[in-house]
Amino acid sequence: MIKAGIIGATGYAGNELVRLLLSHKMVELRFLASKSFEGEKYQAIYRNFTDLVDMPCTAPDLQAMAEEADVIFTATPQGYLSGILNEGILAKCRIIDLSADYRIKDKEIYEKWYKIEHKSPELIQKAVYGLTEVNREKIKNASILANPGCFTTCSILTAYPLVKEGVIDPDTLVINALSGVSGAGRGAKTANLFCEVNESAKAYGVTTHRHTPEIEEQLGYAAGRSILVSFTPHLIPMNRGILATETASLTGDYTLQDISRIYEDYYGREPFIRLLPAGQCPETRFVEGSNYVDLGFQIDPRTKRIVMMGALDNLVKGAAGQAVQNMNVMFGFEETEGLRSVPMNP
Q1: Helix or strand run (H / E) with residue 214
Q2: Which of the ends of the chain has fewer CB neighbours closer than 10 A, N or C?
Q3: Buried b vs exposed e over 60-99: b needs ≥16 C-beta within 10 Å?
Q4: What's the CA gap between 282 and 200, in Å, rounded?
């Protein structure tokens, strides 16, 4: 058994972490920290935990938590962790950060896109990017794990094998992604009110979304060079889910069988990636509440481009589920432990 704590336990990702860790046979939840709800019972904030979690929220104190916990999840705003993390804390426990503080290796790029100063740049290179299917071996020994963003997880996994194999030209990659409203967090914002979102769909962060450099950096590693992608997110009126539709130019005359073989080589044994039959398109409703990613593709012979599609639950595989998956790898547990939930439908 290991002892775990969560800072930011009352946000949507924090709530999902509690739900998943509660069913994990190797984890004891010791701390649920929340600046906004200090002293309040967790089950009073999220009533789905009535009679399941009889713990109060405590003040966020990373130093004190590190004295007792084996792993601490930080589901906090950008800049929080980088302002308080140090080598002393990392010597006592392992950190899984769900913010962007340690995802991007170039400090200047982080500060440009996030508009804040990075206060512990000496730790950036120490962090391992937690895309489990790509960095599993590095994750095993990580002391600080940078959990990927939700859009980035879907966007990268969908295109990664074809970029890595040189099947597509990554500089022609165009990503359009749809997200449910929970991706914007639990904070009160006018743009996310029911009347503002219901019966509507909109693009946002056009050419400026902060997940863009993260996608470019990780797919750049696959390509073996720096790349530029066009990424446009959209908000749609549903609670959960991300659907990414990505197009790129093919570098040769590839058949459906060729592409299928590449995806199978990369993902065929992955426990949480499901490769759909030819002609079948991913749908968010078939991954809801689960840690699965559904992938599909179609070749357009007329334009010599390929359409790649991916769907996941932004709060599970796009946040908390991937964090638990990474924790399992870090501590040598079965990778699927605590994550075996079948997707909910309807």
Answers
A1: helix 212-223
A2: C
A3: bebeebbeebbbbbbbbebbbbbebbeeebeeebbbbbbb
A4: 22
Query: How many folded domains does the chain comprise?
Result: 2
Of 295, 292, 281, the closest CA to residue 316 belongs to: 292
For residue 111, the surrounding DSSP H or E stretch is helix 107-114
Same domain, 89 and 211: no
**Enclosing domain of residue 161:** 151-314
Contact 105, 214 (CB under 8 A): no
The tens-digit pLDDT sequence of the chain (346 residues) is 999 999 999 999 999 999 999 999 999 999 999 999 999 999 999 999 999 999 999 999 999 999 999 999 999 999 999 999 999 999 999 999 999 999 999 999 999 999 999 999 999 999 999 999 999 999 999 999 999 999 999 999 999 999 999 999 999 999 999 999 988 888 778 888 888 889 999 999 999 999 999 999 999 999 999 999 999 999 999 999 999 999 999 999 999 999 999 999 999 999 999 999 988 999 999 999 999 999 999 999 999 999 999 999 999 999 999 999 999 999 999 999 999 999 999 8
Task: Check 150, 154, 195, 281 and give the catalytic one.
Answer: 150
Q: Are residues 85 and 183 in the same domain?
A: no
Please say whether the beta carbons of 73 and 7 come within 8 A: yes
| Two structure tokens written together for 126 | 């120490």
CATH number of domain containing 67 = 3.40.50.720
Residues making up the chain, counted from first to last: 346
Contact predicate 154/244, CB 8 Å: yes
What are the tokens at 255? 């058949």
Both 157 and 293 in one domain: the answer is: yes
Does 168 lie in the same domain as 122? Answer: no
| C-beta of residue 275 within 8 angstroms of C-beta of residue 295 | yes
The verdict on 97 and 176 lying in the same domain is: no
Pairing of the two strands 174-179 and 230-235? parallel
* Residue 162 and residue 307 share a domain: yes
